[in-house]
Design brief:
7% helix; mainly beta; 386 residues; 2 helices; four-stranded antiparallel sheet
Length: 386
C-alpha cells in the first residue's frame, strides 16, 4: 500500500512545482534592432543614471583591401550605443552612439562619487577603455585607455567596487585575455589608468575574470581549458589559490554575490549553472542545467536569490537560488538565436533605503535588458513573479 501512496504524493508534488514554475514569466516590453551584431548590455547602477542602458556591439566585416582568394582575416568593428528608459512603460530611446573597436565586454563602475558615471569596455584590439557619460547632454567621451594585450582579444572585465569602495578612492579592474592571461589595472582618483600585474592563468582563452566583491585580494578566472581558478593577487600569482575541474567544458562567466559574502556563481559551455561556497572551492554546492551553453550570469541588484542567465542557444532564464537548490523559474525562448547580453535594471529602491526614504517610491527592479547576437536584437523585458 506504501507504493501507491508515494506515487500519489509524487504526482501532486509535480503538479505543485509546475504551478509554481508557470507563475513566473518574461513580459516583452520592446524589441529593437541595433543594426550591428550585439553581445553585451549593462544598465548603469548609479543614482540618477539608472535609467541608462549601454549596449556593446561586435561586428565582423570583410576587409575592403583584401585580395580575392587571399586568406585575409575579417575586420572586427564595434560600437557603443546608449539608450534611455525614462519610464518603465515607455519605449527605449537611443540617445547616442560612438564607434569603437569590437566590444567583448562592458561594465559600469558602481561608484556614486565620480563626477560622471564611468563605463569600462574591453575590445578586440586588446584595449581596456574608460568612458564617461553625461546623460543630461547625451555625451559619451573616452576618458582614458590602456593596452592589455597586443594583436589578440581582451575578453572580459570586472570592477572591484560593487560592494564597497576603497578608502583611498583607488579602484581596480581585472581583465581576461585570449592568450589565457589575467591582468589587473589601477584607476587613481585623478583618472590615471595603468596595468599593475599580469600572469598566465590558462592554457587556452581566459573567457572570464571576476573579483570577490567581499575580498578584493581574491580574483576568479575561467578558461577554455575547463578550469575554474582563484588567485590571491597579494602574491605574484605563480600558482592559483585553488583549481576546480568540476566544469566539463569551457568556463565562461563568474559573478560574486552582492549580498551573500561567501556565494559565487559560475557558468560554462557545459550548460550548468554552479553555485559555490567561496570558503571551499573544491566542488559546487548546487547546480542547475539550463539546456544550453552559458555566456553570462548576473545576480539581481536587490534580491539575493534571483539570477539572470544568458544561455546562448537555450535563450534567457531567471533562476532562483533557494539555498539548498537552484532552479529555473522563468525562460524566454530566442528560437535558437544566441542569447549573449543580459542585465538587470537597478531600481532606485536601494538608494531610497540607503537614505531612509519612502520605499513605495521605488521604480520597478524587474526590468531587464537582453540582446541576441546574429540577429542584432535588443529586448526590453520585465520579469514577472506572481
Amino acid at each position: 500500500i506504501l507504493l501507491p501512496i508515494l506515487l500519489l504524493v509524487a504526482f501532486f508534488a509535480l503538479i505543485f512545482v509546475g504551478a509554481v514554475m508557470s507563475t513566473s514569466v518574461f513580459e516583452e516590453l520592446e524589441v529593437l534592432s541595433t543594426d550591428l551584431t550585439c553581445d553585451a548590455t549593462e544598465w548603469c547602477p548609479r543614482l540618477g543614471s539608472n535609467h541608462v542602458l549601454a549596449v556593446g556591439l561586435y561586428q565582423l566585416r570583410d576587409d575592403p583591401n583584401a585580395v580575392e582568394g587571399d586568406d585575409t582575416p575579417k575586420l572586427r568593428i564595434g560600437q557603443i550605443q546608449m539608450y534611455h528608459l525614462d519610464d518603465d512603460e515607455r519605449p527605449l530611446r537611443l540617445s547616442t552612439k560612438i564607434d569603437s573597436a569590437a566590444i567583448l565586454d562592458m561594465k559600469w563602475s558602481a561608484s556614486q562619487n565620480d563626477p560622471l558615471p564611468l563605463l569600462a569596455t574591453v575590445t578586440a584590439s586588446g584595449d581596456l577603455d574608460l568612458y564617461s557619460f553625461d546623460h543630461s547632454t547625451d555625451t559619451l567621451d573616452k576618458s582614458t585607455s590602456v593596452s592589455v594585450i597586443k594583436d589578440q582579444l581582451a575578453l572580459s572585465l570586472d570592477w572591484d567596487d560593487r560592494v564597497k569602495e576603497s578608502e583611498d578612492s583607488v579602484r581596480n579592474i581585472v581583465v581576461s585575455s585570449q592568450d589565457g592571461n589575467i591582468s589587473t589595472a589601477r584607476l587613481t582618483p585623478h583618472g590615471e589608468l595603468s596595468i599593475t600585474s599580469s600572469w598566465h592563468a590558462h592554457d587556452f582563452p581566459a573567457w572570464i575574470a571576476a573579483y570577490n566583491y567581499w575580498n578584493k585580494h581574491i580574483v576568479y578566472s575561467g578558461g577554455d581549458d575547463c578550469k575554474f581558478k582563484s588567485w590571491d593577487i597579494r602574491t605574484d600569482c605563480s600558482y592559483p589559490a585553488s583549481v576546480s575541474k568540476a566544469h566539463q567544458m569551457g568556463v565562461t562567466t563568474a559573478h560574486s554575490s552582492l549580498y551573500q559574502e561567501h556565494v559565487l556563481v559560475t557558468g560554462s559551455y557545459d550548460e550548468y549553472v554552479r553555485v559555490w561556497d567561496t570558503r571551499s572551492l573544491r566542488q559546487p554546492v548546487r547546480e542547475c542545467n539550463v539546456g544550453g551553453g552559458i555566456w553570462r550570469l548576473k545576480w539581481h541588484p536587490t534580491d539575493p536569490s534571483l539570477l539572470l542567465c544568458a544561455g546562448m542557444h537555450s535563450g534567457f532564464h531567471v533562476l532562483k537560488d533557494c539555498g539548498s537548490s537552484i532552479e529555473i523559474v522563468a525562460s524566454h525562448d530566442t528560437k535558437g538565436e544566441l542569447a549573449y547580453g543580459a542585465s538587470w535594471k537597478r531600481s532606485n529602491r536601494v538608494f531610497l533605503e540607503q537614505n531612509n526614504e519612502d520605499k513605495n517610491k521605488a521604480e520597478d527592479s524587474s526590468i531587464v535588458g537582453l540582446c541576441t547576437f546574429y540577429d542584432s536584437t535588443l529586448m526590453l523585458m520585465r520579469y514577472c513573479s506572481k
